């Protein structure tokens, strides 16, 4: 708690007490979304006390404060993954900090592998629910200041916002898929047997992020909206590779940005 408070105090001081309404976590290759923000402040992770620093290629490390459609937002350009060796407390640290800064909503994006065989590379999937196969970030003494010991996970991905996203996508002619995201540790991509296993347990897409941040946001009662860019189809014959993931992410990122901007406008 001390670490979280110190980070949020330092951010308030550095941003002239900027009050974000929406928090946004930008996934692999989707950092370009930051161009949609009228930037007021940019803080590098390394300049924020207790903030981890990201190590993966394609992941910048800064918090961007500014406006989208007149609303105050804070965006994480670069997130922390469990496979990098961070603890789950470190992975979710920025979400606690953003909540202390006052966010009322969390938007999360990621690159994911398609498990649902009707998905195509470059599809956007609205996350309707998740399956957590990472360690739970709430293991350990409960931080009662933030939320209950046994948080409810119904409506984990806010139904009303999903409905709004659907309406916007129709209007903007953006094709959407819907499905369950399974969060795994990585860093290996899945074997064919593992993709089949994820399909069998009810997943539509698989990735190595998002679930920890959403669990921690829901612990604090912050509504979430999540979207995956399908960068590869696990059950097809093509191989996953990080460069391809970044490229597909970038292309679909433009459509995702349009959807996010419209959603934020209508929140
Ligand atoms: N598996 C896990 N994570 C991913 C994948 C995948 O196939 N594609 C992009 N992120």
Can you walk me through this structure?
With 267 residues, the chain is α/β, with parallel strands linked by helices. The protein contains six helices and nine strands, in the order αββββαββαβαβαβα. It has helices at residues 2-14, 88-101, 159-172, 192-200, 211-219, 242-266; strands spanning 22-26, 38-44, 62-68, 71-77, 105-114, 124-132, 176-183, 205-207, 224-233. The longest helix is centred in the last third of the chain and has 25 residues, at 242-266. The two termini are 30 Å apart. The chain binds hypoxanthine. The site of hypoxanthine has 14 residues, from strand 5, strand 8 and strand 9. Residues 111-113, 186, 189-190, 206-208, 231-232, 234, 240, 245 line the site of hypoxanthine.
Q: Report the oligomer.
A: single chain
Cα shape: globular
C-alpha Rg, in Å?
A: 17 Å
- Calculate the terminal CA-CA distance, rounded to whole Å: 30 Å
- Averaged pLDDT: 92
Count of DSSP helices? 6
List the uncertain runs. none
Structural class: alpha/beta
Short description:
The protein is an alpha/beta fold. The chain contains 6 helices and 9 strands.
Task: Name its key features.
267 residues, alpha/beta, 5-stranded mixed β-barrel, 9 strands, 25% strand, globular, binds hypoxanthine
Fold topology:
Blueprint: H1 2-14, E1 22-26, E2 38-44, E3 62-68, E4 71-77, H2 88-101, E5 105-114, E6 124-132, H3 159-172, E7 176-183, H4 192-200, E8 205-207, H5 211-219, E9 224-233, H6 242-266
Parallel strand pairs: 1-4, 1-5, 5-9, 6-7, 7-8
Antiparallel strand pairs: 2-3, 3-4, 5-8, 6-9
Helix pairs in contact: 1-2, 2-5, 3-6
The structure holds hypoxanthine.
Residues 111-113, 186, 189-190, 206-208, 231-232, 234, 240, 245 line the site of hypoxanthine.
